[in-house]
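DM from R.C. (forwarded with permission)

"hey, sorry to bug you on a friday — could you get me a structure for this? deadline for the figure draft is monday and I only need the backbone to look sensible"
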Amino acid sequence: MTRKTVRIAMNGVTGRMGYRQHLVRSILALREQGGLDLGDGTVLWPEPILLGRREHALREIAGRHGLDHVSTDLDAVLADPSVDIYFDAQVTSAREEAIARAIAAGKHIYTEKPTATGLDGALGLARLAHDKGVKHGVVQDKIFLPGLLKLKRLVDGGFFGRVLSVRGEFGYWVFEGDWQPAQRPSWNYRAQDGGGIVVDMFPHWEYVLHELFGRVTSVQALATTHIPQRWDEQGKPYDATADDAAYGIFELEGGAVAQINSSWAVRVHRDELVEFQVDGTEGSAVAGLRGCRVQHRGATPKPVWNPDVPATEVFRDQWQEVPDNTEFDNGFKAQWELFLRHVYADAPYRWDLLAGARGVQLAELGLRSSAEGRRIDVPEVSL
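My reply, with the result:
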């Protein structure tokens, strides 16, 4: 067995997502399992280089996990020929320039989304990577969640018949920051810093809908700021200039309609923080992060509307749980493994910078739809 060291520049690991899901749950988890076995006698051993602006924070993380390499000099890291892959989990406003520099340096690219602040920038990165000949991938973690993997299994098995509609509910109450600390960084609520729930979540909804049910062909959205004032990490009040809730209707190729509500100003009264209900001619399903329940056509009850008497049925009890039938790994780690196999074993991989550009496009058109108060067609993007 040959061990090949893969040096990965990881920019943004001091943030919540970059640290928890990408460094700890993915790269370090791969090291804990002994590396990634490519099946040809080669084991990939990921060697992260922690990259960012705050050296003391990077060194603290490195010390906590026994890592050797930290840097605050992006250009120096990109100039190092031993670095194979550049990963970006920075704030959105800093991402496009850094990725462009990494592509110019000939590094393979793996990045969080959105890939840029606008469609032109996102397509520009996809074209740069294509012309340079580097491999590239965008994190699309939701489709690797157990609940959505079960939903995909149902779709592939023809369970739904013709899909009619998809209804999604996502969100939770993010504290304003005055009497309890907020669970999300303050920049998320400032448009000038790249914040906003449309920019954050519509790229997710694009790939979820595209992968499971069909390409989004039109969008009609209402984005709003329900909480106009919040308090930052220093306890100072600031104006929330970004949208904290969005209500979207998406037409899909093939005729299905999706409705998805996204909000950081909603209190949860559902089983999971995100749920999708899919209704088809042959059956329906409700999927969350981990669970998925179904009701087939032949087992569908016959409810009768009668507001004069109390309901005698427990509607949730009329659904059947979909079994796991397999073991599910962390979704971020699973996608990292696929990307590493793509880079080093030329395995197929379709979640690239062009796919990331589709998500940026949907967010951009969603905000435009909200501003103009109308439905907007979503054209196909291409290089």
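R.C.: lifesaver. DSSP finds nine helices and 18 strands in the chain.
me: no worries. The chain has a mean pLDDT of 96.
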